[in-house]
Amino acid sequence: MRIGRFEKIGSTRIGVFEDGVVRDVTAEFDDFRDAVSRPADATDVDGESYSTEEITHLPPTTDNNTVFCAALNYEAHAEESDIEVPEWPLVFLKLPGRSWGKVNRSRITHALPKRLTTKRNSRL
């Protein structure tokens, strides 16, 4: 079971995502943090269901969260970019408001000069 955030008709909701469908379980939880802390409670919630094509996917964070990330697959990225693999994994932050949902693209890439958006630098 995957719990995530989505938007439907201008409202931010919490849902269970399975097989191309999201079931709204918002009524069961105080907020997304509450949902993540007790996901089993979403199992029997009988909320309205939507096709994942009908909703806007939101990031699994809110505007108040900072996400700490460890690039555990950095070796593969280094090899495909033909750069030296560092001794230790890269650690980076996703600051509040800098995460986008599944189909929403990062707005920053539209402002970058074309020379910075090559395959090698596409993850800027």
How would you sum up this structure, described in words?
- This is Fumarylacetoacetase-like C-terminal domain-containing protein.
- InterPro entries: Fumarylacetoacetase_C_sf.
- With 124 residues, the chain is mostly beta strands.
- The protein folds into two domains: 2-58, FAH (SH3 type barrels), CATH 2.30.30.370; 67-121, no CATH class.
- Helix content is 10%, strand content 27%.
- It has two helices and seven strands.
- It has helices at 32-37, 74-80, and strands spanning 2-8, 11-18, 21-24, 49-51, 56-58, 67-70, 91-94.
- The strands form two sheets. Strands 4-3-2-1-5 form a five-stranded antiparallel β-sheet.
- A hairpin with a 2-residue loop joins β2 (11-18) and β3 (21-24).
- The longest helix has 7 residues, at 74-80.
- The chain is elongated.
- The model is unreliable at 105-112 and 115-124 (pLDDT under 50).
In terms of topology, how is this protein built?
Blueprint: E1 2-8, E2 11-18, E3 21-24, H1 32-37, E4 49-51, E5 56-58, E6 67-70, H2 74-80, E7 91-94
Antiparallel strand pairs: 1-2, 1-5, 2-3, 3-4, 6-7
